[in-house]
Amino acid sequence: MPYQNPAPQAAATKRSSPVRDCSLIFLFFFFAADPAVISPQDPTLVIGSSLIAACSVNSDLHLKAEDLYWTLNGRRLPPESYKVLNGTTLSVALANLNGSRQQSGDNLVCHSRDGSILAGSCLYVGLPPEKPVNITCWSKNMKDLTCKWAPGTEGETYLHTNYTLKYKLRWYGRDNTCQEYRTAGQYSCHIPKDLALFTPYEIWVEASNRLGVAVSEVVMLDILDVVTTDPPADVTVSRVGDLEDQLSVRWSSPPALKDFLFQAKYQIQYRVEDSSEWKVVDDVGNQTSCRLAGLRPGTVYFVQVRCNPFGIYGSKKAGIWSDWSNPTAASTPRSDRLPGVCDPKSGEHNTTLRRELKQFFGWVKKHAYGCSNLSIKLYDQWRVWLQKSHKTRNQVGEGCSAAGRAGAGGHIWLRGYCLWKLGCAFVLGAARR
Amino acid sequence: PVDRANLLSSASSSSSLSQQEVATKIKQTHRLTVLLKHCSEQLLAEYVRHQGEPFSSPDFQPPAMAVPGLPSPSVPPEAWLALSDGKRLWHLAAAYTTLPGLLGSVLQQQAELNPLASELHRQLEAAARQCRGLAGNLEGIMGALGVPGPPPPSSSLGGPPPSAFLAKLSGYHVCRLHRDWAMRSHEALGLLRTKYPL
């Protein structure tokens, strides 16, 4: 698309180019002065207020006030609101202004009769900020502090609002300003270091925009009362001998708080493979193992554990729950064990079996290192991986047909056991090559 | 798209590049202009979106205004094609040594006007980077072809910060010209590529 020629009134200054014989010039389009000026320039106003703006054209342009018109955000303003102030100045009256349509400001523009833009002014119409509310903070392993808050009321002020989180030790004077924003959502800030323990902090948030400032209530807290930690490590889930309705869960306490004399509280949640409903075990106390009972035989379960660093340094308060550990899977023993016979009942099962076999081989190739690592767990791990990739629902469903719930679970396990054996053989064979 | 900004290490010395190397460089640079063409369109669209009407309306008629230092492709299309390769390259090089600074100024202004428009900021920064890359590539090609380069751009546009509306307008001009130059550079490199085939 060719560059459009400038307005006829533009004066052009020529600049010679150093290339010989070159008659080409750069044209810098330069108005001796601006064609027109709008006053006020970039005003800030409260919603509902009125404004009278004036556009004065440069006399060089030989335009009269009657030749001008106004637009606001592209929409022409009614001539009834115009007033000729003098030969070259036209004013417009705006009443009951709405909040700015964009944060960069509403565009109030003065045009000449042919539509060309002579000047513009950006209007910033909005509300002063509300006090930020609901300040909540947490410290990861007593090393840092992250706080989040909510803007007051609906939060829509139509003007860009800047938030500053400030904090100070209760009994020392100096205010500190948080620097790392938006670490945990839009209204959050992270203080990475230099935090004192055993002494309360005062924390507050200041919201400011073009129309004013609002300060939240001050929150007082001791870092030790808002401690959270990493999820428990080394979560393992295993069978309890041959018991078909139980699984044993073991974990270790998160290492970061090793020396801080705390009593950990734990929670476990578990679910069956193809359900999204978690069952929570609450009264785990501070042991690092737990036995789940009343489970369904021949079923794959996903288990997660989380930790609450309760009573750090003898404080009576609970801390904040950690994230859940990554899900670990295990399956309960099947009720009637068929010793390793793969017996697909129908052609339908056959194709599903073939497909699952291929998938399993693919996965085993990538994830199993040597046959010594193979165990029933490998199959369970594969199922966790499948679950994560959201593939399970589609594949398994088709194969597990009309057989009842418990039976369907059994089919999965049976095919899994055969698959595992085949997989092991595959890997061994490949390794020997 | 992958940013292929590709600065040459040895710039001005007229080079001992083989015909093959020159042709490769021209092909590379041509591909860079394809990227620039695409990105500059996106940038202009993203830019006007954030300034509000009338900037974002499809029939927006901006006034020509003072954007000091910005070379506009004022050579009409037919004359442009009639220029020699060397002259075309010279014009392109002049534009692309100036554009990065101008795009940087737009970024600064948009950081104030539209502080939350992170995608716009990202695109402005990328555009400046790509222009610097193209300037470097052009310098290399011109060196290989024995074409003298343009003078370095004058130091950045000083002066008081413009009013909000003028900032929106000058930013529009910079983005628009960035796009126009991208189209011209794409055309010119295409022509060059046919003359220096691999």
Can you describe this structure?
The complex is a heterodimer of chains A (433) and B (198). Chain A is of the alpha+beta class and 433 residues long. Chain A has four domains: 3-126, Immunoglobulins (Immunoglobulin-like), CATH 2.60.40; 133-226, Immunoglobulins (Immunoglobulin-like), CATH 2.60.40.10; 230-331, Immunoglobulin-like, CATH 2.60.40.10; 355-431, no CATH class. In chain A, 16% of the residues lie in helices and 35% in strands. Chain A has helices spanning 347-367, 376-388, 392-399, 405-432; strands at 11-15, 26-30, 36-39, 44-46, 51-57, 68-72, 75-76, 82-86, 89-94, 106-112, 117-126, 133-140, 145-150, 162-169, 176-177, 180-181, 188-191, 201-209, 212-215, 219-221, 227-228, 233-239, 247-252, 263-272, 279-281, 289-292, 300-310, 328-331. The longest helix of chain A is centred in the last third of the chain and has 28 residues, at 405-432. Chain A is elongated and about 100 Å long. With 198 residues, chain B is an all-alpha fold. Helices cover 65% and strands 0% of the residues of chain B. Chain B is built from five helices and no strands. In chain B, helix 3 (85-113) packs antiparallel against helix 4 (118-145). The radius of gyration of chain B is 17 Å and the shape is elongated. Mean pLDDT of chain B is 84; it is low at 1-14. The interface between A and B is large, with 43 and 44 residues.
- Total helical segments of chain B: 5
Figure out the total of helices of chain A.
4
- The oligomeric status of these chains comes to heterodimer
Instruction: Return Rg of chain A in Å.
Output: 36 Å
CATH superfamily of the largest domain in chain A: Immunoglobulins
**Count of strand segments of chain A:** 28
Distance between the termini of chain A: 65 Å
What do we call the CATH topology of the largest domain in chain A? Answer: Immunoglobulin-like
The helix fraction of chain B, in percent, is 55-70%
Give the topology string of chain B: H per helix, E per strand: HHHHH
Which word captures the global form of chain B? elongated
Q: Which blocks of ≥5 consecutive residues of chain B have pLDDT under 50? A: 1-14
Q: Work out the number of β strands of chain B.
A: 0
Structural domain tally of chain A: 4
Average of the residue pLDDT scores of chain A: 78
Describe the sheet with the most strands of chain B.
Answer: none
Pairing-aware structural class of the strands and helices of chain B?
A: mainly alpha
Helix coverage percent of residues of chain A?
10-25%
Radius of gyration of chain B: 17 Å
Beta fraction of chain B = under 5%
